[in-house]
Amino acid sequence: MMYKFLMSVYKEMLLLKRDFGGLVILFVMPLVLIVTITLIQDSTFKSVNESRIPILLVDHDNGNISKTVKENLNESGSFEIVTKIDGATVTEASAKEAVFKGKYQLAIVIPEKLSADLQLKVNQNVGKIVSQLGLEDTTSVVKEKVVVKSKEVKLYFDPATQLTFKNAVKSAIDKMISQIETQSIYSTFQDQLGEGDEPIFEQESFITFKEIVPKVNDKEILPNSVQHNVPAWALFAIFFIVVPLSINIVKEKGQGTQIRLITNPVPYAVIIAGKTATYLMICMIQFFLMVAVGVYLFPYLGLPVLDVDGKLLLMSIVALFSGLAAIGFGILLGTIAKTQEQSAPFGATSVVILAAIGGVWVPVFAMPKIMQYVSHISPMNWGLNAFYDVLLRNGNIVEILPEINLLLLFFIITITIAIGYDKKKRAV
Amino acid sequence: MNEPIIHISELYKKYKDADDFSVNNLSLSIEKNEIFGLLGPNGAGKTTLISMLCGLVKPTAGKFTISGLSYDKNATQIKKTIGVVPQEYALYPTLTARENLRYFGSMYGLKGKELHRKVDEALDHLGLLKFADKKIETFSGGMKRRVNLIAGILHQPSVLFLDEPTVGVDVQSKNVIIDYLKELNSKGTTIIYTSHHLTEAQDFCTKIAIIDRGKIYAEGTPDGLIHGTPHAHNLEDVFISLTGKELRDDV
User: Fold this and answer.
1) Residue B150's pLDDT is what?
2) Could you tell me the pTM of the whole model?
């Protein structure tokens, strides 16, 4: 039986070797995919954090607040303030038009008298408090109370702007305005209560935060886009083995070779084992190529290096079991499908769906509640979690065992169904 | 009289959703070392009958044995002793003739020098040795048919099932195939064969059964069938006399 198994492996390898185009797709396309996706994601990350995004600023205030907003935006290093388009000063209407046409991602419109009105409002509030505390300056002139209407800073976003970017900008501007208000309040108190130039309020934040990152051997583990992307897209590529594998099985039906195999004195399990071993080798070669790209090529492309120091063995185990799960699915699909027109589109689409619900594109925690539950049925989610356990959470073999077991169980179930289905279809 | 190597008793096959039985209460005995021709119009039930005998399709009812064994208990044993040459070119197009044959031979347990020798001998016998390392996809129809035949006989089966082995091939290839089959038969292989080539069947077969609508209409030697049918000069006359002239198109 071992001899028949080895001959089946040899035959499968010959078939793959003769299909040069197929081999190129199997090995080169995942590499192209992983480099492209990581470059895109890394450049998006850089566009938010390193290079400056031009934004339109319409300043009707021309006061302290608009000055502070401009200074903060400049100091953030993320934005380049644009106040003129084609030599003309930007108005609210021209800013709105330019942004809605997608020429700029964002326009900020600061309303008229914002600084003055804020100061007036703060003065009124502080004066009221000081008066209630009996600390009122008896020499000050009683002013007539003026009603100050609330103000709006308008933000115009390009409709194509991603929600995450919108939320980040809104949050940053909200924080900036809160700081200005706070400083204004402190300064007004200082003016009304302080004597001389001695500050009576410390204006630095009392509460700050510090991110504590895990350490291994006193070395901090800092996740980067590569640590996230390589395992995620490596899994995606591994699962795409479903397409050529299912086509391979469907072809055997069409060519009639399956008839010969059925009438040969060899169990279907041996044929399946031959395919499994061959395609598992392909999966592992794919995986090691992708890791090699992360380790050796990415630094030359200006991307962070994939740190696999002391983790390669565990990562290989995760890749091996993920490959088994993918192969089980491919064999089941190939056994059930009658034509390549059924197996190829279904295989490709189902892999994309499994990737989507598995958290390859959008992290599971960011999904709606129902989809977070659904994500647990995707073998890609199990594989991805196991990779993250190893790469980002410094997990050991015991910690990845639950995911490994699930992947193995998936393989066993799919293969059992495939063999059962085939047996039912076979006569004897 | 030789002992029957295949014994079929009241065999039925009705496919799912089909209106009629493809094989309908068919009983037949095929003797050892015969070249047995199953002839009939399209949809007569020939391929279904052969498929059941090869273990590809399960009977709806009835029994049959091959060398006294049934698939219920001895499937692997039967598969070791039979050879199957399907109507399709059941070969991997991107593999060479030698690679295909070594792979299929190995599935019967042939290995090493014995496997290599048998493959090369058969290729040589059928005039294909110089093309042994060419891919099947570059072969003509006749060449593919010959490789297809070799893949079914490498393990020297005692019973060989052939489903239209000469369909779509030129006269030269057909003669080589028929001569090789006669040689195999002379060495002890029983051959069960279906064909639409009635002249070929008349010359090749030692016994013939004419099958239609899943039943056997006549059975005997080619000469016996011709002489037993009024006004028949050849097997085609017998065939038309028994199965009629109407078209047998069906979907």
Assistant:
1) 93
2) 0.76
CB B64 within 8 A of CB B9: yes
**∠ CA A79-A83-A84, rounded to 5°:** 125
Tell me the mean pLDDT in the region B131-158.
Answer: 91
Q: Is B119 on the interface with A (CB under 8 A)?
A: no
All domains of chain B in start order, with CATH:
4-87+136-243 (3.40.50.300)
Categorise residue A21: left if φ over 0, alpha if ψ from -120 to 50, beta otherwise: alpha
Q: How confident is the model at residue A428 (pLDDT cuts 50, 70, 90)?
A: very low
- Binary contact (A18, B95; C-beta < 8 A): yes
Q: State the pLDDT confidence band at A116, using cuts at 50, 70 and 90.
A: confident
Cβ neighbours of residue A428 under 8 Å, at least 6 residues apart?
B55, B58, B71, B72, B75
Burial classification of residue A313, based on how many CB atoms lie within 10 Å of its CB (0-12 exposed, 13-18 middle, 19 or more buried): exposed
pLDDT at A324 > cutoff 90: yes
Alpha-carbon torsion A5, A291, A351, A341, what sign? Answer: negative
Residue-wise pLDDT tens digits, A120-134:
888 888 888 877 777
Helix H or strand E segment including B14:
none
- Which residues numbered 35-74 in B keep a CB inside 8 Å of some CB on A? 51-52, 54-58, 71-72
Q: Tokens 């001695």, residue?
A: A198
Confidence of residue A279 (pLDDT cuts 50, 70, 90): very high
**Closest partner residue to A260 among B86, B109, B111, by Cβ?**
B86
Contact B82 A426 (CB under 8 A): no
In our burial notation (b when 16+ CB lie closer than 10 A, e otherwise), range A397-423 reads eeebeebbebbeebbeebbeebbeebe
B120 pLDDT higher than 90: yes
A248 to chain B, closest Cα gap in Å: 11
pLDDT above 60: residue A49:
no
ipTM of the complex: 0.84
Q: How many residues does chain A have?
A: 428
In the block, residue with structure tokens 């996706």: A37
- Are A203 and A186 in contact, with CB atoms under 8 Å apart? yes
Instruction: Name which of B56, B88, B95 is nearest A263 (Cβ-Cβ).
Output: B56
Distance from CA of B142 to the nearest CA of A (A): 17
The residue ranking higher by pLDDT, A282 or A359, is A282
Instruction: Tell me the three state secondary structure of residue B84.
Output: strand
Contact A4 B151 (CB under 8 A): no
Delineate the domains of chain A, giving CATH numbers in brackets: 8-44+226-425 (no CATH), 56-209 (3.40.1710)
Q: How far is CA B2 from CA A365, B27, B29, B32, B34, in A?
A: 77, 18, 11, 6, 9
Could you tell me which of A342, A339, A340, A387 has the C-alpha nearest to residue A237? A387
Of B57, B99, B109, the CB nearest to A427: B57
Using a CB-CB cut-off of 8 Å, the residues of chain B touching A263 are: 54-56, 79, 82, 84
Over the stretch A71-104, which tens digit does the pLDDT of each residue have? 888 887 778 888 888 888 889 899 888 888 888 8
A146 touches B: beta carbon within 8 Å: no
* The pairing of beta strand B159-163 with beta strand B82-85: parallel
Q: What pLDDT does A404 receive?
A: 94
